[in-house]
Amino acid sequence: MTTKGTIRDVELKMVLGVDPGTITTGWAVIGTAEGHAMELWSGHIKTESSDSGPDNMGRRLHYIKEYLDAVFLVHPDIESVAFEGGFIGKHPQANMAIGYARGIAMLVAAEHGLKHYQYAPATVKKTVTDHGNATKSMLTRSIASMFEIEPTIQEDESDAIGVALCHAIKIGDVWWMG
Q1: Which of 9, 34, 66, 84 is catalytic?
Q2: Does residue 84 have an active-site annotation?
Q3: Residue 36 covered by a domain
Q4: Catalytic site includes residue 79
Q5: pLDDT tens digits for 134-155?
Q6: What CATH number has the domain bearing residue 93?
Q7: 72: domain range?
Q8: Model pTM?
Q9: How many other β-carbons are positioned within 10 Å of the β-carbon of residue 127?
Q10: Is residue 3 domain-resident?
Q11: Please, are residues 17 and 164 in contact by the beta-carbon 8 Å criterion?
């Protein structure tokens, strides 16, 4: 499938980036061609605050899965899924919840016959901004500048764009930004 875009109307390799979370999950589809990347579509999945608590985790995860499946309906030519992982915070319950959302991203990738790739937050920041200890706002500003989008995008969305871009750079599909 050929996707028309600003990269000289060539066929794009599509990557889905996911920043998993059970309250907010960021997602982004980027296309790459001839060493360049372009953001095609991104957003965030916000689950209902009324679905908080362990009894409602299944509903939240189901909603995230349905939403990510819908992304594949719009972009069936996605070739790989990359997500942020590896961060261990101070709160065990929050770590478990993020792990559940990460598992949903893995499941969606597997159901669509795709490999998934995981990158630590510091790896994403280092690859995209050249600073492994960059703040979230630094990553957001860098992403906004690269893709010529508003720097006011939601942080989870920015992180998802960052992880998709990180993957594209790591596999050699993107080597020039600007």
Answers
A1: 84
A2: yes
A3: yes
A4: no
A5: 988 999 999 988 888 888 889 9
A6: 3.30.420.10
A7: 13-170
A8: 0.89
A9: 19
A10: no
A11: yes
